[in-house]
Amino acid sequence: MRKTRFNGLGIVLFLVILTFLWAATAVSDEKQLLAAIDERAGSCRAVSQKILDYKELGQQEFKSCQLLMEELRKLGFKVEGDLKVPDDLIKGGVAKTAFRAELAGKGPGPTITIMLEYNALPNGHSCGHNLISTSGLLAAAGPAKLMKDTPGRLLIIGTPDEDRGSFDGGKISLLEGKHFDGTDMVLITHPGDVWSVDKELLAMKRATFVFKGKAAHAAAAPEQGINALDAAIQTFNGINALRQHLRQDVRIHGIIKKGGEAVNVVPALAEAEFAARAYPTVNIMFKIAPEGVALHADEMLKYTVPEAGWQATVQAAKAVALTAYDLLKNPAKEKKIQEKFRQLKAKEGK
Q1: Does residue 6 fall inside a structural domain?
Q2: Are residues 231 and 105 in the same domain?
Q3: Is a pLDDT exceeding 70 seen at residue 22?
């Protein structure tokens, strides 16, 4: 039997050929991925318009949720709604407007999650969640085209009631319900007035404090009353005293929601709500509005309509799709990012 012998030059040429073939395959895959996004851009724009028109507030996003679930099924995802969560976060223990969609690849590998937000605010979609959800939907369409030959798993999670944080919903309830279990990396986009890949945001946890006192006539018999509002005010004063000792990446803010019904009656009930934010995360911000236009402001409503912000929405979707696919194909890169994240947390004492 004749043996083939490779000299040094032959080995080098062999490796060059392999590298070329791998690079050519990677370029071909990326073209397919981007083509899949372009192919679905029109239908996703129509979805975005529908969600804009629905204007469904947190925990009421039934039509938006169902619409996104249907679109993910068309992409081949296995989809489930009515996700179980802790009873103390959502009454009844079911997030009725959340969903989880999964698409398995070829064999074991990383799990990359893309999150979709779709609730409106009282003034409409001034936060652009109609664009966030469809940007994520488009981003899912790219890798989905290639998952049959890609190791790992693509996970899409619909996170409702985003603007109230963990209060009766949001991502915290889904996290504590273990719906992110197994996730190696989470990706999301958000529209705004700038392009940014290093925008630092803060995770949020909410708490409501209810103070119960005793009513009395504030002029005729104030000594018979117990002032619940005083307790709420003292709570605010305590938090204000704490602020100077907080780290730069921690924020606490709140409001008094109830403080009495009439000025001549000692308040028997007071209620205060606080939000605590900490642990910076990174979000891909895409520009749809002129610089200085604030999220949640009425003026932003002019730019969250699909015809105004769609081009940037598609660009953001392509960035997320390429990132997700890169992480799926390169587990070592994903592990390196995770290790860097752990080091940063340890450095900050977290």
Answers
A1: no
A2: no
A3: no
> Which of 247, 275, 303 corresponds to the end of one domain?
275
From 32, 139, 153, select the one nearest 103 (Cα to Cα).
153
Q: Which residues lie below 8 Å from residue 14, measured CB to CB, with a gap of 6+?
A: 6
The answer to whether residues 262 and 314 belong to one domain is no
Within 10 angstroms of residue 99's Cβ, the number of other Cβ atoms is 25
Do the Cβ atoms of 102 and 168 come closer than 8 Å?
A: no
For residues 241 and 100, give the distance between their C-alpha atoms in angstroms, rounded to a whole number. Answer: 42
pTM: 0.77
Residue 80 covered by a domain: yes
> To which H or E segment does residue 336 belong?
helix 331-347
Using CA atoms, how far apart are residues 271 and 255, in angstroms rounded to an integer?
9
Strands 153-158 and 111-116, sheet pairing: parallel
| Same domain membership, residue 212 and residue 187 | no
User: How does pLDDT run across 60-85, given as a tens digit for each residue?
Assistant: 999 999 999 999 999 999 999 999 98
In this prediction, residue 1 has a pLDDT band, given cuts at 50, 70 and 90, of very low
